[in-house]
Amino acid sequence: MDYDDIVNVDDISDTERDELYEGASAGRKRNYHNILERKRRNHIKDGYLKLRDSIPDVERKKVSRIQILKRAVEHMRHLKAEIKRREMYCQELKLRLKSLEC
């Protein structure tokens, strides 16, 4: 297998990847590193987009990554508070039911 034959770095095993990297020239190593770095950045970008699209009032809007993180934290706090509120309401209903049963 030659470095030029690689179409997708995901299609080769770790061993083959290491062998190709070791035998590659400096320019090819740089190119290989650039491919991996681009893939890493795209993976991070996809993660931010998925996070953004799971937050109400932000989904499908163009916002910065820091805003996505800030809104995600706010949304998680809101969800935790909502869970706590509902748990308390559920406890109230159980107490009412218990008092009616007596």
From TrEMBL:
Record keyword rRNA-binding present: no
Domain BHLH: from-to ranges: 28-79
InterPro entries: bHLH_dom, HLH_DNA-bd_sf
Source domain of life: Eukaryota
Signal sequence, start to end: none
Pfam families listed in its UniProt record: HLH
Record PROSITE patterns: BHLH
GO cellular-component term (any): RNA polymerase II transcription regulator complex
Protein name, entry field: BHLH domain-containing protein
Record-linked SUPFAM superfamilies: HLH, helix-loop-helix DNA-binding domain (SSF47459)
Family statement: Belongs to the MAX family.
Listed GO biological process terms: positive regulation of transcription by RNA polymerase II
Keywords recorded for this protein, A-Z: Activator, DNA-binding, Nucleus, Transcription, Transcription regulation
One term of GO molecular function: DNA-binding transcription factor activity
